[in-house]
Batch of 3 targets.
Target 1
Amino acid sequence: MWSLSTTDRVDERAPIGVFDSGLGGLTVLSELMRVLPHERFVFLGDSARCPYGPRHPEEVRSFVLEIGAHLAQLGCKMIVIACNTATAAGLADAQRAFDVPVVGVVEPGARAAVHMTRSRRVGVIATEGTIAQGAYERAIAHLDAGIQVFSQAAPEFVRIAEARFAGDGSVAAEEDQRWAQQYLAPLVQRQVDTLVLGCTHYPLIADLIAEQMGEDVTLVSSAEETAREVRAILERRGDVAGPDAPLELEMLVTGDDAQKFALSARGLLGVEAPVAQVRLAAQLHEGEGCS
């Protein structure tokens, strides 16, 4: 277990570490900042190795442990895995490896879907990795075994979301509409009334998804539930920052896209934040990710 020495033990002003493979985790960070407006946050976007979805779970697990160790070295009092694929592949191992709480996004999203569905027919769209591991099916069945879950991998949605916020594309593009129809038509046919956006990139194109699903289908993002869980854990531990403390944000990226992340943070979070590039010890394919 990664452990802090007594002299290095963090206080309530220690940062909360949040990470994802790319921009999608900013949707979770935004909600965390809303419900915890006096905290310090460190966000790490592993853009050099984005996307995680097509990678083998063991490889993603190694990324989770590597990034978790980096955030632990920075003295984070909590780590939030703001990526569904990484949560499915590495949450349990990370919780065993680090002596600070580690929270993922799958269980909060599943819990929200269970609470919202009326017909007990829930759709899940996610990356190939999340779908292949059956993460949401297990999480939802644990909460309500009577709910039917229909899953669909939608890997191109990651590209579409990244392109939108890099200024390289539009959700109104004809090609994007075709992808949305291909992915979502089977779920419409299954008559789901609740759709879990099982990748943190997907809320960035919620309007494209909602247009295909129709107004009677509720879209579920795990961001709100995850933020509530993080706040509850901090409150129980007595680690919530004081009401007079200012919100602080530092952003790190592993790729060569610091400027893009700075612009996206301003657009999505409404704040200016410094962005620095970091090179992780075992980083692979540097510069070949979502840029």
Note: Residues 106-221 form a domain with the Rossmann fold fold (CATH 3.40.50.1860).
Target 2
Amino acid sequence: MTEEKPDWCPGCGLYGIQTALKQALSELNLEPHKVFLATGIGCGSKMAHWINVYATHTLHGRLLPVAAGAKLANHSLTVIGMGGDGDGYGIGMGHFVHTMRRNIDILYLVNNNQIYGLTKGQASPTSEKGMKTKSTPFGVIETPVNPIAFAICSGATFVARGFAGDLEHLKWLIAEGIKHKGFSLIDILQPCITFNKINTFDYFRQRVYKINDNVGYKTSDAEAALKRSHEWGDKIPIGIFYQESREINEELEPQLAKEPLAYQDISSIDVAPIMEKFV
């Protein structure tokens, strides 16, 4: 246990996400010193302070480069990234697409509350069209980002959506994402009870259904997954949309074939010549 307690708003969906993550790590018997958590900016990014693993609180939109660096430096670690929808689908979108196509073995959890909660209620990239916020008093005019469709088309090898109001299902998704070998995205529907009065717990409970309960649904079918990714409204699918097995970035780097970089002996390498060129 960490000494500090979360200061999220009472009833925030982040409490469920934190519980699901902790339970998944525990049930997988992962030792704290073998897990690295990189967080960005947003209410959920404070998670780095409240889970007893190696963790760092990075810059807005920059958690994935840090997570990727940690994985490449020591690919024996279980590396998890966590940030908000504004962090990942806004300023961090460029890093998002390139980390996916490289298929680096990282689990990326996006706390998607469809609003900028930490900065007090501005529209985010996933805010619904027409939604009135502090930055869009006459309603959002842009089409929202579809993170599931974007991830499938960008090379992610595990694409899922969870709901903060279904802890058991979310815990299962997180465990499956950790076990998956490759880049895993879990977009988490996380109600912001303070600033988003539309996408509430009740709103989602009346709409979500589990796609993996459908006997005929195959997560290996990218075309079917892409079709489901566009389903939003009266029915909202949650679960694993798509999953495939593909070589990960770490397997393709010859420098990592022997052992993690963190454990390689570099004491015999003379860096003086290269340093003289740049210093």
Note: The chain has a mean pLDDT of 93.
Target 3
Amino acid sequence: MRELLLAGRRRVYEVLLNAELDHSDIVGDIVDLASELRVPVTEVSRGRLDALSHTEAPQGVVARAAELPTTALHDLCAPLEGRPPFLLAVDGVTDPGNLGALLRIAECAGVTGVVLPRHRAVHVTPTVTKAAAGAVEYLRTALVGGLPTAINEMRDAGVWVVGLDAGGASSIHDLPVATDAVCLVLGAEGKGLSRLAAQRCDLVASIPLHGHLSSLNVASAGAIACYEIARRRPSPTG
């Protein structure tokens, strides 16, 4: 909620507040920000707030806001402030908690855009937004009809497309294109990358595992891979 107001990317029509909620520091900050931005704040019953929230375990504050803006894929592929793009694409991720966690990781790692397929995958829902903890307000997002076609478009635009899969021949720690325009593609929970998406990637990398377990969940794998790429790229202030 706080990041929604601070980012200013979309119009906020109203902030609804549980009338029984104590005005903690965070809630007080939200109310102050809404007042500064001339966004109406309305106190409502807990029952009405729960009905409007569309998430499990709402935390007492809900906003009515315009839809998130989307960005064309070719714009994501262009340099941003003179720097090559660092993109993240998801292939069939259906768990909203995992997608929300991935978006939060991506924003913190400096990803400049996210590519989401329209079909057979979770979209940015209220549950995803909550799990992302404000990241959706800053990440540029492209919705594409099919990921394999989008991969071809990114490659044509000069972006290296790297799939992440347990069967990848290269180690993510030895990625030769991390400093270039690059898109990291993460596969679905359990199934990994689809065959067609993997075939379209320039290369498929894996995360070396040294314990007894054979895999990581998609959010954990995404964190390792995003930060492995991020550490090899110049910092935005560098």
Note: The CA atoms of residues 102 and 219 lie 5 Å apart.
